[in-house]
Amino acid sequence: TALAPASGANGFEDSAINGGDRTAVGVGGGVCQVSTTVFRAALEGGFPFLERHNHGYVVSWYGDPGFDATIYTPYVDLRFLNDTDAHLLIQPVVDSAEGVLSFRFYGTKPDRVVEIGEAVYEDVKQPGAPIYQEDASLEAGQIKQVEWAKEGLTATVIRKVTENGVTREDPIRSVYRPWNAMFLYGPGTVIPGVTDVEEPTPAPTAEASAGGDG
Question: Which residue of 26, 36, 104, 195 has the lowest C-beta tally within 10 Å?
Fold first, then answer.
């Protein structure tokens, strides 16, 4: 199955997306909640992955790094192989009252055992200094934090799938870049101890946000 291109005409709404060096609001933001949930279900089911991309930086609301999947049509996608001998029905279930999305996989259950190890974190990199950027919509003296610092790292998850007496190991690797804290300030604001500030920049475009960090 496939998602239609992210547009208002196709029913997508505005939400958070990654716009280069900061989070922005764009059409189709938040759709990665869908891909991450499907990814975890397919991971537990032992299905081989044909394409999977992690977010560019660690997104805290997806839990432990290494278990997320980003999509943004038509740039990056999530694809896995139904390697069973039967059809596979994927049914989404939305509980609006509880704010919960789940996916149910229906098919002929294969005779396999799936073991998923904990993520191993390596090559941890500290974020850089906070970024300060002038914002004409703020008043003098007003400072607003819009990004929070996150470490960069490499996460590796090992999945073992045993079927018909044969065990295969699937290493799933995710590389996240460091993410700097960012503050916006009103014109004329004096920021103690800070001499290096950025000039105002235009809002990210949908194309610049193609990383799909929603």
Answer: 195
